[in-house]
Amino acid sequence: MNRGSCLVWVFGDYGDYFQNRVTLQLIAKGKSLAAELDTRLGVVVLGEDIGQYVMEYAAHGADVIYAADHHALKDYDVELFTAVVASWVGIYRPEIFLAGATVFGREFFPRLAKRLQTGLSADCVALEIDKESGAFVQTTPAFGGDLLADVITPQHRPQMATVHPGTFRELSHDPFAIAELIYPPVPELPPRKIEVIRRRQERAHKASLKDAKVVIVGGKGMGSKANFEKLFQLAEILDGEVGATRPAVDAGWIGEERLLGQTGKSVRPRLLITIGTSGALQYTSGIQGSETVIAVNRDPSAPIFSVADLGIVGDADRIVSLLIEELNRRL
Amino acid sequence: MHIAICIKQVPDIAAVRIDRERMTVVREGVQNIINPSDYQALSLAMALKSKIGGTVTVITMGPPQSEEALREALAAGADRGILLTDHAFAGADTLATSHVLSKAISRLDPAPSIIFCGNNTIDSDTGHVGPQVAEELGIAQVCGILDVQAESEQTLLAKRMGERYIETIRVGCPVLFTVRKEGGTAILPGLGSLQRAFSAGSIISWDKEELGLSDDETGLAGSATRVWRLRATPLKIKGDIITGQAQELVQAILRKLESMSLVDEDQRHE
Ligand SMILES: Cc1cc2nc3c(=O)[nH]c(=O)nc-3n(C[C@H](O)[C@H](O)[C@H](O)COP(=O)(O)OP(=O)(O)OC[C@H]3O[C@@H](n4cnc5c(N)ncnc54)[C@H](O)[C@@H]3O)c2cc1C
Ligand SMILES: Nc1ncnc2c1ncn2[C@@H]1O[C@H](COP(=O)(O)O)[C@@H](O)[C@H]1O
Predict the structure, then answer these.
(1) How many angstroms separate the CA atoms of A219 and A246, rounded?
(2) A264 CB less than 6 Å from ligand 1?
(3) Distances A67 to A12, A54, A64, A81, B252 between C-alpha atoms, Å
(4) Do B232 and A197 touch (CB under 8 A)?
(5) A55: which of A19, A67, A205, B118 lies 20 to 30 Å off by Cα?
(6) pTM score
(7) Considering every ligand atom, which ligand is closest to the CA of A113?
(8) Angular region, A93: left φ>0, alpha ψ -120 to 50, beta rest
């Protein structure tokens, strides 16, 4: 290994538990990319009192940590973070730079890539070094996920990508691991233009949904609020809980706290029945821990069937109504 | 107050099919629409305009036919449209797209106080263009907003969805917002005018020369990324997909539930 160089970087997004997991996943992937390129893996951490994150990233495999512990960086701010990180990229010139495709990653990385005048691929679901050409191949879903596009950045550096959460598996925690800790200079910071004046937690997690053994999910294909409400009956009979996709929440059929997926909750029930949902990645990322999945959709080519153990091609409301009838008859 | 909106004409992805055998995208009979989150941006702009007045300029970069999208926006109430079209713009990634859009916006007089973009397009779906335009113009960005209100002459309050929070944000002008399509504001009827939409002069067209751009700054040549290849998403069919009469389908579900001991076996059929 080339001891001196550290050319694969990961942005340490520790905003909350979920975001931090993505960082850990990227450290694991970044480390294997770095090994292939004969270099080391660095993590960039900005904030105030970041000691716990520095320790955690070291324990999860970071070789080098580039940190700024600065009061002005306490709260995330795209312009401040861009100023600092762009100046560090200028100093150390990494080849590859990854961030989680979190809400913050997806607004910070485009701005950073633009300042650095380099390429960025969005929400990648695979990353690899092509054996033949040596190119860093960034795979991103195209056409609503029906196709995959392999993107490369031939000349510009660093090669930047945001990565879909849950794509890679984090390394186990090694409390004895050590990393080199560097405090690069913090450049003059631009003024903060954005003020967060209120922050309302989306309603607290319903413990019962997260821990439920059976989850019934309704999507846009449920068609109406009246149809959607039958899912509660079904859930009750099966001693389960109800979840929903984004369009069902937006239609007002159910509260935001029942949203599953990338911007909602993740569930890991024994059985999940998903009805009238197309199977968008942003949704399926929240249900992938389910043991058994039954999907109901009237479109036989719906992507949801690719994650289902049993796929039922049929009308959502008709199936739900009949199923309730049958189950009631058996009780 | 001058408000600019970047809109893109996109194929209605829901209607696009992929021919997995030939690995081609079947666009036959697929309509072109204004990208949904851009349309939502347009409705937020119209709502702002109806409260505080001002003019709304819609901008699009694309082939000549994207003029349709501008006309649709004019019919919905925008005051003028700018079509950025040139062969040299084709094949642009977000770096090159944001460059052309920024050049066009910086030519607007007066400079817009608010710029809206959609959160993401349904065809490219990167969500990069908004933040990259903000960066090139050197102005603040607030991404993923659901709603925005004027607080005073020069400050705005925006509601946006963070990772786990709904945040209210105060920001001064100039600012670029990217708008989520889920916001739910509807365009007020009567704001638009079909006459304006189809009158000459309400749409102007700028090409590479007009914008003072050289060949290597735009399109494929000005892009940092390349699509190396497209391939079909591996179909990870895990289980059975069954079709049939609703009754049979429900029986299949019940058998699955029985096999997992979630329901008792049916006693009736002995
Ligand atoms: C950044 C980002 C984050 C996102 N985060 C999330 C998230 O956390 N959670 C989430 O859910 N979404 C999220 N989304 C939205 C996501 O991309 C999809 O749009 C959403 O999951 C689709 O929900 P759906 O399957 O209910 O609706 P649709 O995609 O509209 O699918 C409806 C399905 O129902 C079927 N159908 C219609 N009528 C019937 C009928 N009568 N009987 C049977 N089937 C029928 C149709 O064939 C179709 O497949 C996010 C999007 C973005 C861009
Ligand atoms: N060709 C274009 N012309 C005008 N606006 C665009 C164009 N491409 C992208 N945008 C804007 O940038 C937003 C994000 O696009 P994208 O980065 O492709 O997801 C869109 O919602 C539009 O507001």
Answers:
(1) 8
(2) yes
(3) 10, 8, 10, 12, 56
(4) no
(5) A205
(6) 0.75
(7) 2
(8) left
The residue among B179, B194, B141 whose CA lies nearest residue B34 is B179
Distance CA B116, CA B2 (A): 11
Query: Measuring CA to CA, which residue among B62, B61, B58 is closest to residue B45?
Result: B58
Helices (H), A37-135: 51-59, 78-92, 103-115
Instruction: Give the Cα-Cα-Cα angle B50, B54, B58 (nearest 5 degrees).
Output: 95
Going residue by residue through chain B (270 aa), what tens digit of pLDDT does each one get?
A: 999 999 999 998 777 777 767 767 777 788 999 999 999 999 999 999 999 999 999 999 999 999 999 999 999 999 999 999 999 999 999 999 999 999 999 999 999 999 999 999 988 889 999 999 999 999 999 999 999 999 998 999 999 987 767 899 999 999 999 999 877 777 766 666 777 777 777 999 999 999 999 999 999 999 999 999 988 766 555 678 888 889 999 999 999 998 887 887 665 543
Structure token digits, residue B165: 């929070």
Q: Is the ipTM of this complex over 0.90?
A: no
Residue A307: CB atoms within 10 Å: 21
Atom of ligand 2 nearest to the CA of B59: 4
Helix (H, G, I), strand (E, B) or coil at A97: strand
H helix runs in A212-292, sequence order: 225-237, 246-250, 281-284
**In B, which residues are within 8 Å of A328 by CB distance?**
none
Element at A34 (helix H, strand E): helix A17-36
Distance CA B77, CA B191 (A): 5
Ordered alpha helix ranges (H), chain B: 36-52, 67-75, 94-106, 129-137, 194-198, 246-259
**DSSP character at residue B150:** E
- E strand or H helix at A211, and its extent? helix A207-211
Q: Which of B172, B124, B128, B169 is nearest to B145 (CA)?
A: B169
